[in-house]
Predict the structure.
Amino acid sequence: MKKIIMGDQIFKAFGEGEEKRNVLGGVSACIHEGEFVAVMGPSGSGKSTLMYALSGTDGIDRGTVVVDGKDLSGIGESELSDLRRTKMGFVFQQPTMLKHLNILDNIILPSMRGNRKNVALITGKARSLMKRVGIFELEKRDITQVSGGQLQRAGICRALMNSPKIIFGDEPTGSLDSQSAQEIMDLFSEINAEGTAVMLVTHDAKVAAQTERIMFMRDGAIVSELKLPKYDGRELDGRIERITDKMRESGI
Amino acid sequence: MYYRIIRNDISKSKLITLTTMIFVAAAAMLVSLAVILVIHLSGAIDTLMTRAQTPHFLQMHTGEIDTARLAEFAEQNDHVDDYQVLEFLNMDGARIILGDNSLTTNIQDNGFSIQSEKFDYLLDLDGNIIHPSAGELYVPISYMKDNTTKVGDKAVISGKALTVSGFLRDSQMNSTLSFSKRFLVSEQDYAEIKAHGNTEYLIEFRLKELSNLGAFETAYASAGLEANGPTVTYPLFKMINALSDGMMIGVILLISVLVVVIALLCIRFTLLAKIEDDYREIGVMKAIGLRVSDIKKIYLAKYSVLAGVGCVLGFGLSLLFKGMLLGNIRLYMGESPHASLAAVLGIIGILFVFLVIMAYVNGVLRRFRNISPAEAIRYGISQEKTFGAKRLNLSGNRLLNTNVFLGVKDVLARKKLYATMLTVLIISTFIMIVPQNLHNTISSKGFIQYMGVGDADMRLDLQQTDRISEKADEIAQTISGDNAISKFAVLATKTFQSKKEDGSEERLKIELGDHSVFPVKYSEGRAPAAEDEIALSALNASELGKQVGDFITLVMEGKDTDVKISGIYSDITNGGKTAKAVFNDASADAMWYVIFAELSDPSLIDSKVSEYADRFAEAKVSDIDEYIKQTFGPTISSVEKASYTAIAVALVISVLITLLFMKMLVAKDKHSISVMKAFGFTSSDIQTQYISRAVLVLMIGIVLGTLLANTLGELLAGAVIASFGASTFHFVVHPLAAYLLSPLLMIGSVLIATIIGTSGAGHLKLSEHIKE
């Protein structure tokens, strides 16, 4: 299967001088079209940094990242923005919404960049996505007037607006109760089943167990990987057990 | 703990702290300067007037004088402490040559005196009474200021050679706004030149108590003593001495108020932004039981350091700059004895600024009480009402580009935040336009109409001459036969007795003739048209307590005649107390004539002025433009300088505040910028959004600022003009400069500041800010 994202020998450090800390020490990773991947590891292991590096939202010190055939080091800021807008979607742990826009406006925002667009078409798509994730009636609400779970669904709608090839999720269920978290995971599975690749960064083995490949990170390196068959809603406990075994094995 | 918090906070926001401190320092400096200048000015004027022993009452007089009767009056009046009559030898400017310069075109009444024996002394620059020796000439200080002459120059007065031995301070006539200037010579030289000029008398009184001045004035008027000329009293001398520097102090005070307001706005803005940043922490502190006063202390501590350092810096700067501004006061009036008091009061001034700032910070922090801990911890932002912004939806936007839309929406959603920037831009526009319009107005030709002078090309003054009426007729005849002159008017000033309601009489100088040819501006009513009408100068109207439509009783040809007041106008000529009427009265003699003329070809003014000056030696002929230049020249040029300075100050303020504001906004908006960037908005998209915000606020600011400048600004400028004797006036606006050039300058500088201030906006590390 075609690789949609390919990272090779990625180095990334934060801080300067004595405070310099290597977060990624030569990591190589790739994601295929339509794949459902999770990255796990303890805090500070570099999993979020890897995600930001692979999506081009953060620069790297050394190495190569290729997204959909384009080497990110060779393109300018505008092209990178275009790439993020058209090929990728993002869902974050905290509701990353603009507080002065209502839910609908926040969702259509990525599609509204640039000059006049077909607003009716864009709004229509947003409404159908909202209907699908069950927040259709909230379009006029302010972001402070809805629950965390509803906000996260709105975030997923926003990520899907430009029909991306891959969605990145940074602890997307981290601040939700277990029922809301499961509903969000079901949504990700649905989206993935329709062919969009998904890469999730998570602490939660239950979340990771619903993906098909898990990369385990420690001290800025991928120390092991676990492949699972596509999740069909059954044997979740067994999958979780396999993950915990693998983590123990990898010293995580 | 406070030290650590303050240090961390300042090091995190260096630019913001620095800008705020600059404004605090500027405010403190200006307030301190204004205080120091006021103390110096009042001290210096007092010293000058005490040393010179300025008369309390001065009656200028031309013509016959009965000194014995005056002496008897002085003897018998209980209020009089001392009395004297001085001679003032009025001489044509062409007869006065100082160094290489002749005073031919000088419009002042230049004259010669000998040193007084009893009071009203002319002083040297050290404040000592001058005793000139034969051959020595002491020149009024204003001729030193304008570089007409210097010590050691040869002077030729009506053919008599003298040497400029020094400059003198005249407590009566120092100011360029006073129309006479006294030169000092020895008695011997005075006797020699006496035949070449006209003698005027200065009848002077010192009173035992200045508070009896009013009673004395009435007594003098009712005694029917010599009064063929203007009357000036001690308070007026004081005012004329204080006027030009007083205006400068007034402008400094006005600017200092504006800068204090800007400093407070700066503080308000940074404080509100900080509170918003710390919203969650404040909620937590409240939740764990800290008192509001404890939380306030942390913020107050920072601002007390900032305001304290700013104030001390401002005070230091005021000491550094005071020399520059005191120069004029020192030159014209000498040193003040209260120099140390000035410094002490300067400190009190900056203390006041400090306290105002702290009180303001305390006021802003009052909003802590309204923060709900639960809400703050949950949302981390204040649940501010955003009225007006909600109706504006991106999904309903068909008109604007998305970035422009987001910019406009942000301004509407955070009105309180942008109100600060808006206020500063309004103030900047205001201080940019008002001095500019004021300068335009006072330098426009029509402006003299506000000052009691008609808008003509040439003016002939005929005074103190024999057969004055015949001469005036002769001039009028010549003018009417002169094809180069398109229109003219002869105005004769005569004195009439007017009866007050209490029966007492007062002299009223009335200018008779056709006032419709070269009209002045009437603040109320109109020019007199019928024989039973009169117009009064604002000063006369207020002194007589009369309004338009009221009547006053004049004694004409021995009979009481009621005349109706048709209008009130502003006047600075002849002590500001004049009147205008059209009736004829052969019984009273004319004191002086003024003949105004307009030329069909204005380029001929110079040649016509010299032609008439040669032909009518007894008349003083002046070009009105020259008259304006010499009378208001220094004022016009200082207002011009002030208007350029104001433009520069306004632009610097706008640039600094915009820069500060944009940097802070970007810092505050890191999270939303990161979100937008993550979803594919480019750096230039983000910058476009900020520019849209700035442009929107700027447009509103310019429109409101211009409106305010033309309403409130006109009123304020009117108040300044009123100090010259004018009562109402309207701005003469240069539309290109005021409505195009100034806004363009403003737009240019604000846009550059916005672009610089937001240049880093798109280059955030997304991963660092997106999780916040």
Summary: The CA atoms of residues 740 and 748 of chain B lie 12 Å apart. Chain B has a mean pLDDT of 84. The interface with chain A takes residues 379, 381, 383, 386, 389-390, 393-398, 401-403, 409-410, 413-414, 671-672, 674-685, 762, 765-767, 770-772 of chain B (CB under 8 Å). Residues 1-59+229-383 of chain B form one domain.
